[in-house]
């Protein structure tokens, strides 16, 4: 079985992020004097934590399996939870440019 293309994976990622935005609950907590945003994403299938640096010093991370699997397989350190949080949190939206470029 061949590895899917980056374009196919990214398209699926955005579709999944859209669904996450529709059905998940988001609980936001600001830490480190306002530098770090931690968002708990609660879905039927589980609860994950997305951590993002408002100053872009560190890339966003997520505790879900897909986040780590995508990084291991070379699809980049993004998952549907990270994308959903970046879209939802106004102060983090500009970080989506890193994903799109």
How would you portray this structure in words?
By secondary structure, this protein is an alpha+beta fold. It has one domain (6-100). Helix content is 40%, strand content 25%. The protein is built from four helices and four strands; from the N terminus they run αββββααα. The protein has a four-stranded antiparallel sheet with strand order 1-2-3-4. A hairpin with a 2-residue loop joins β2 (36-43) and β3. It is globular. The relative contact order is 0.18.
Structure keywords:
101 residues, alpha+beta, 40% helix, globular, four-stranded antiparallel beta sheet
Q: Can you summarize this structure?
A:
With 101 residues, the protein is an alpha+beta fold. The protein has helices spanning 6-23, 65-72, 80-88, 96-100; strands spanning 25-31, 36-43, 46-53, 61-62. The chain starts with 5 loop residues before the first helix and ends with a helix.
